Each structure stands twice: as C-alpha cells, then as structure tokens.
Amino acid sequence: VMLKKTTVLAAAIAAALMLGACSKSDSSQAAASAPAAEKAYVVATDATYAPFEYLDDNQVVGFSKDILEAIAANQGIKFNFANTPWEGIFATLGKGDSDIVSSSVTITDERKGQMDFSEPYFEATQMIAVNDAKGGDIKSFEDLKKGKHLISVQTGTTGDIVSQKLLGKDSTQIKRFESMPLALKELL
Length: 188
Description:
With 188 residues, the protein is an alpha/beta fold. The protein has helices at 13-19, 24-33, 63-75, 91-95, 109-112, 132-135, 158-167, 180-187; strands at 2-3, 40-45, 48-49, 53-56, 59-61, 78-83, 100-101, 128-129, 151-154, 174-177. A three-stranded parallel sheet has the order 6-2-7. Strands 3-4-5 form a three-stranded antiparallel sheet. A hairpin with a 2-residue loop joins β4 (53-56) and β5. The chain starts with a strand and ends with a helix. The relative contact order is 0.23.
C-alpha cells in the first residue's frame, strides 16, 4: 500500500509575491540602486512528482514551476530552480541555500511555525494506491490498522505523517523511501 504525498501548495511563494508589493516610488528607487546583475531567487524543488514538478531533459518542469514563472514574468524577477531531495529541502531555506521551496508542500501548523506560505493554489487529499494482487481488501485508512499490509511513503511527507498518526511513529508497517518513484516501485 502506498500513501500519496499530498499536493496542496508550494511553500514560500509568498516571498516572491511580496517582492512585487513595493509602491512604484519604492520600485524605482530600488531599481536605481540595484546592482547591474539581476538577482535570481533560488527555488528548491524535489522534481519527482509529476505533473507538479519533475525533470524533463534534466530541467525542472511542471505546474509548480509554471506558476512561479508566471509570477516572475509579472513581477520582473528571475528564479533558478534547483532539484533538491525532499528530506533536506526545508533546511535549504534556513541555511540560505534557497530562497523558496516549491515542491507540492502541504501547509501544516508545524511548518507554518518555520516558514511563510502563499495562499493555497491546489487542494488535494491523502490517497491510497493499492497493488490489487495484495491489497484488494483496502478501502479506507482504517483498513490499514488491521496490520497485515505494508505502507510505502516518502520520508517526511504528509503521507508519512498521516501514517505515523494512524499506526504509530515506530510502526514496522511503514516503509520509508527518499522519493515517490522509489515508494511506487516498492508498491509494484
């Protein structure tokens, strides 16, 4: 059984939106004092979650990038996208390695205490993907409590958090993987 990473919104796009919140006089002053080279804001994304963010010809593409590119065009700013493993993606903000995280991030109270969020731009719920040969009797999250199925999740995602709440933090039913493709491969 595999719990799908919730795709609710990109983290910290609000930072990009706030860049355009200056008044016209503030903008012209900033432009006059801006260095010749345009600053490019680094966007960390775990590009393993199509159609929202994934790699195509080694370039980050997808719905989340399209949204940020529209913001960039509207605000006259530039983004550089860095494919970043999910497990350390939020730490890149604190270390200054990225300015924004855009990677199908679910807003949680804990995360709101650590970073700013944009308004949600996509709403999704937790889902269960089942291998019919082994999990045809699973119809709800409650069915996972019966203890006879393994649950594959991407480490640190909302699916991981939900699984821990359902089965306990140290449950041996939960198998964690560093990416969604690896978790899905385990399901197969």
